[in-house]
Amino acid sequence: MIFFKQKDQYSLIFINNGFVLNRQILILGCLIFIMAVPAGWAEEVKIRIQGSTTVNPVVTEAAEHFHQTRGWTVLVDTQGGSSGGISAVGEGLADIGMSSKPLSEQDRQRYATVNFQPVSIGIDGVAIIVSEPVYLSGVTQISRAQMQALYEKRITNWQDLGGDRRRVVFYNKEPGRGTWEVFANWAYDGAKNAPLVNHPEVGSNEETRNKVGHHPGAISQLSYAWTESSSKIRALDIMTDEGEVIPATLENIQSGVYPLARQLYVITADNPRPEVREFIEYLLSQDGQRLVSKHGYLPIH
Amino acid sequence: MRLLIRSIKCGSYLLSAAALLVFLGLFGFLGSGSGRILQHEGLSFWNQADWFFRADTYGAASMLYGSIVVGIIAMCLAAPISLAGAIFTAEYLRGWPRTIVKGTIELLAGIPSVVYGLLGVLYLRPIVFEWTQIFLPESGDTLLTAGILVGIMIIPTVLSLSDDAFRSVSQSERETSRALGLTDNEVFFHAIFPRAFPGVIAAVLLALGRAVGETIAVYLVVGRADNRLPDPWYSLQPLVEAGQTLTSKLGGSEVHMAYGHSLHWSAIVTLGFTLLAIVMFFVILSEVLLIPFKKYRMP
Questions:
Q1: What is the rounded distance in angstroms from the CA atom of residue B227 to the CA atom of residue B231?
Q2: Cα–Cα distance between A172 and A120 in angstroms, integer?
Q3: Quick one: B138 and B28 in the same domain?
Q4: CATH number at residue B281
Q5: B259 CB within 8 Å of a chain A CB
């Protein structure tokens, strides 16, 4: 292949400098170029990353950094959320999994041969969001009991919570997504205790924001980082069981007062390649942590 | 020369056998994958609406209902419009306007479904929400929205195929019937339409298969709420509520969660099997419906 590469350079020089419009050289050059390009690709560093849409913006920007400075190919995909990322690493389909929930015992059992290595890269809060009309009509805070009543459809009209007469539309985050699990941990002390319900489901954060923003009676769970970028949705304050009202703000999440918060992880299998390790070290470095804050999450140190 | 013809003949037999083998393989794979869940659920997999994977109960009745309802709405919308359109393009348009119109329609048929899906999210959803206000809809993400969207999507396909069916009636037959003294309308209804009818039916059923199998556009606007069935069974209220279809379930992230969990995975595979069976049913139905018309075919 080296032979082709050298040839390739010569023919290119020919074309550029001498305006040698010899057809044969041109065609030969084109042919060699076409053959040499895949040979060059094969030597490139390639990292496959899959998982949570919550961790995605940070990792994608780090991926762009490595693509520009090193020419690495870093593929980032959000199929299946956190669970999808963990199974992809377990199956060996991805080098790094992004997850917004800690590894469960179940995950470890399912891939017993894989020794997962989770690394926390930031903290995220989950906000309970409603569409603007609901907020403006007087529903500005929510307690755990009220949340349960909404989730179980015991309350179906905002009137019962002090708002206007408007039907409640609960867009439930797909169970299995990290955001939903944070919600279930808060509202029901764990995903296992959450009742089985049939709400319309939403997947990605963009979809959640869009659907809640466009339906006047909507409520949903959304990553805190996504709440500020749209004026059509509002985050509700959380009323604790002791009667204390805690607004969903960055400070409250950072200090640990706000009850709906979680760590963000990148997960690899045992003994990652040096390039993969370097990528994770970058995420933990000052530059990497700056990306974490830039996307509305909290740095770990 | 004879050897060449022989080998070509042999090759074409082999290729048709391959098509059959692929189908049988798919059928066998999906069928054997459904064994586990059918042992667990039995017939209640299809006639009960209790899909709760966290509790290990799998009843797909609401998805079956959703798929059928979306298909019916799409058909009711697309069939009359396309038939009328096809009659116009085939019988009344001539020369370059016809070329342009026909080309545009075929172009529309080629637009990827995700584009229709996004247009549905942006424009159709709010419109449906507005129009159905008197039924107190949950949101704009409803089975009705999905049905209308799929209906719009399949219009170009049905129209184009029906148009081909009308055009395939030969000029000599048209001239013969004119020579018998029939009027324009009589020529169309008594000479052209009966000959083209099998083609129209085939177009409609092909499009119905596409409507039931459509995934991404439906996924974006159907709402994806599980286990909702009409009560009583003829109630139309579920049309303006969020629903779930076989394809929107298969397109969702639950497939990733199911992977590695054998019972859940088997349930997902059985959804695929059910979808295949429905499409197969339509294909067989179209063949059966066409039997009485076979005699009209050109010798």
A1: 12
A2: 26
A3: no
A4: 1.10.3720.10
A5: yes
Q: Are residues B76 and B194 in the same domain?
A: yes
Confidence of residue B94 (pLDDT cuts 50, 70, 90): confident
Tokens of A23: 């057809």
Report the C-alpha gap between A29 and A7 in whole angstroms. 8
| Whether residue B122 sits in one domain with residue B82 | yes
Q: Identify which of B55, B129, B141 has the shortest CB distance to residue A196.
A: B55
Give the residue from B57, B84, B76, B26 showing the smallest Cα distance to B200.
B84
Neighbours of A274 (CB within 10 A): 8
Residue B136: pLDDT above 90? no
Together in a domain, B20 and B118 = no
Nearest CA in chain B to A109: B260
Angle, helices A286-294 vs A56-70, to 10°: value is 140
Question: Is B74 within the bounds of a domain?
Answer: yes
Distance between CA atoms of B45 and B273, rounded to whole angstroms? 12
Helix (H) or strand (E) holding B255: helix B254-258
Q: Per the confidence metrics, is the pTM higher than 0.95?
A: no
Q: Do A215 and B139 touch (CB under 8 A)?
A: yes
**C-alpha span between A194 and A190 (Å, rounded):** 7
pLDDT of residue A270: 86
Q: How far apart are CA A97 and CA A94, in angstroms?
A: 7
Position B254 scores a pLDDT of 84
Task: Please check whether residue B214 touches A, CB under 8 A.
Answer: no
Whether the CB-CB separation of A178 and A81 falls below 8 Å is answered with yes
The whole-number pLDDT of residue B295 equals 58
Residue B54 lies in a domain: no
Domains delineated in chain A: 2-122+265-299 (3.40.190.10), 124-261 (3.40.190.10)
Q: Give mean pLDDT, residues A26-50.
A: 64
| pLDDT class of B8 with cuts at 50, 70, 90 | very high
Cβ separation A201–B256 shorter than 8 A = no
What is the reported pLDDT for A18? 41
The answer to whether position B163 is within a domain reads yes
Nearest 5 degrees, angle CA A273-CA A298-CA A80?
Answer: 55
Could you tell me the residue range of the domain that residue B230 belongs to?
61-295
* Closest in A81, A174, A200 to B141, CB measured: A200
Query: Would the CB atoms of B253 and A79 count as touching at under 8 Å?
Result: yes
B243 to chain A: closest CA residue: A200
- Yes or no, beta carbons of B225 and A201 under 8 Å apart: yes
Q: How far is CA A180 from CA A219, B17, B277, in A?
A: 13, 49, 34
With an 8 Å Cβ cutoff, is A167 touching chain B? Answer: yes
Question: Do B266 and B128 share a structural domain?
Answer: yes
Q: What's the pLDDT tens digit per position in B230-273?
A: 888 888 888 888 999 999 999 887 887 787 788 999 999 999 99
Let me know whether B149 and B2 are in one domain.
no
Which residue of chain B has the CA closest to A214?
A: B126
Number of domains in chain B: 2
State whether B126 and B246 are in the same domain: yes
Examine residue B50 and state whether it is found in any structural domain, yes or no: no
Q: Does B270 lie in the same domain as B127? A: yes
Contact B200, B165 (CB under 8 A): yes
